[in-house]
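Subject: sequence -> structure tokens, single chain

Hey, anyone have a minute? Need the predicted structure for the following. Not urgent.
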Amino acid sequence: MAGYKNILQIFMLQLIMVTIFSSQTQGQGLKVGFYTKSCPDAEKIVSKVISNVMAVAPSLSGALLRLHFHDCFIRGCDGSILLDSPNNQSEKFSIPNLSLRGYSVIDRVKLALENSCPGVVSCADIVALVARDVTVATMGPHWKVETGRRDGNVSLIAEPLDSVAGLPAFFDNITTLKQSFALRGLSVKDLVVLSGGHTLGVSHCSSFESRLYNFTGNGDTDPSMDPNYIIRLKRKCTPGDQTTLAELDPGSFKTFDDSYYRLVTKRRGLLTSDAALLDDPETKAYLVRATSRRSTFFKDFSESMVKMGRIGVITGSQGEVRKVCSRIN
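Reply:
Had a minute. Here:
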């Protein structure tokens, strides 16, 4: 039985790699300005809606950026994270996605685009454009978003939890994180750069509770975390707390900057996956460089976001352009 399981895992890895190589070819079908003729004001419309949203709800910036990550890492950037299902069996109902927010903002953008250019701009492209625009709105870098994605029509609750091809988890170590990114054609540099997106947003106490109260199952704390930071977090998060939120980048969680890296280097990364960046020579070196005068973080983040946005895309006559992002046509 164990041998069969190993063979199955190897097959899954091979299948994923085939998908990645295929997506890199398909990614060539994307281009900047895809909607120049079919919907010339598309990006302006998205930017205007996001500007209005950020003016009243800036805390949604991290959530909307996270949507793009969660979409692209499962089935590629095809808008599958947005789909509802009659019996709650789509991706958005999978445990790693239950804390996702911002769906109503995507719907608001889609409605504005449908009013201007019916049936033209895909939901997958909207998610990618919104990710860029919330980054810009929070003082982060601007990049040219490649567009031309089509929307997929499959979304399965089990896939984000798959032991091989599922979403990277907040409790993953550096080895697992590197494998997860590599399976999607992303480098170790992309891993540490895209982790910088944690400069925005919050996390539930339950995501790091074990680091504070029961790290090895003996009521201890995580020795890799700054003890003073643990004391501060314990004031906010009590054992069993499922509702309280903590800032991933305290004091700066609504501003896109390099302070996340400064925290991680001081052993104040909130999640195990944040702290893991200190456990690899390449990621650790980038942490130091990102907080120096030689920092290229904004440029690197832009490049890694473009690269991530090419994962598993469907273009041309594949898929569809949904009229409503939460359901197939």
